[in-house]
Amino acid sequence: MDHITLALPQEPADGIAGWAADLVDAMGAPGAGLAVALENLFPPLPSEIILPLAGFAAGQGVISLFAALFWTTLGSVVGAVALYWIGALIGRERMYAIWAKLPLVKTADLERTEEWFAKHGTKAVFLGRMVPIFRSLISVPAGLERMPLPTFLVLTGLGSLVWNAVLVLSGYWLGDQWDKVGDYVGVISKAVLVMVVLAMAFYIVVRLRSRGTAQHRRPS
């Protein structure tokens, strides 16, 4: 296989980009799929770097565009299935036992979450594949709730194909400017993370206040 020549302003010789480029160089399109599978298992590995790089490699003729889309989507599904089975192995009863030992939470909170997932789980799995950070996390509750595996596979495959296609094609069309994709997606990822942190902080404050009020009203 010919060595990948990445005509970038800064050669991706190290970091995540260099690691992904080495995988594609050594394995071709399956290397891009492996990188994406690992990204699902370890969310700190950014798909906004791996996928546009795969698209750029396709634009350079190192791999075909079809192979880039096929293998990265397959990698997404494989990584998601691994997390699904982690959730399934934890199981509902064990999750409730762990939840009962956590501070600031109630069993009713978990029950409401289950009810929400039962109503909206299919949309959550499909759309969650397109949201940074939650792309990986959504697979765990799907396993916990034992969503039928064929349904999970179809939803994950379709959602992953949409997300992967956007980033792979962006890298393909942008050419040696492929790294700009990560800048834009990175902003979205940070915004999502900030919203999650703020929501958790708000939840904790409300829970502490409600607990304090209940203790204050408790008769001596």
Strand content: under 5%
Helix content: over 70%
The gyration radius over C-alpha positions equals 21 Å
For the sheet with most strands, the description reads:
none
**What's the N-to-C terminus distance?**
79 Å
How many β-strand runs?
0
Uncertain stretches? 6-11
Q: What is the count of helical runs?
A: 10
Instruction: Kindly report the average pLDDT value.
Output: 76
- Specify the overall morphology: elongated
The SSE string, one letter per element, is HHHHHHHHHH
Q: What structural class should be given to the helix and strand makeup?
A: mainly alpha
| Multimer state | single chain
InterPro entries: DedA_domain, VTT_dom
Main location: membrane
Domain VTT: 45-172
Membrane topology: Multi-pass membrane protein
Note down, in words, how this protein is organized:
Helix content is 77%, strand content 0%. The chain has 220 residues and is an all-alpha fold. It is elongated. InterPro entries: DedA_domain (IPR051311), VTT_dom (IPR032816).
Descriptive terms for the model:
single chain; 220 residues; mainly alpha; 10 helices
Produce a short descriptive summary:
This protein is an all-alpha fold and 220 residues long. Helix content is 77%, strand content 0%.
Topology:
Elements: H1 15-27, H2 29-41, H3 47-59, H4 65-90, H5 92-100, H6 107-128, H7 134-137, H8 139-144, H9 149-174, H10 180-217
Helix pairs in contact: 1-2, 1-3, 2-3, 2-4, 3-4, 3-9, 3-10, 4-9, 6-9
Transmembrane segments: 62-86, 152-175, 187-208
Keywords: Cell membrane, Membrane, Transmembrane, Transmembrane helix
Main location: membrane
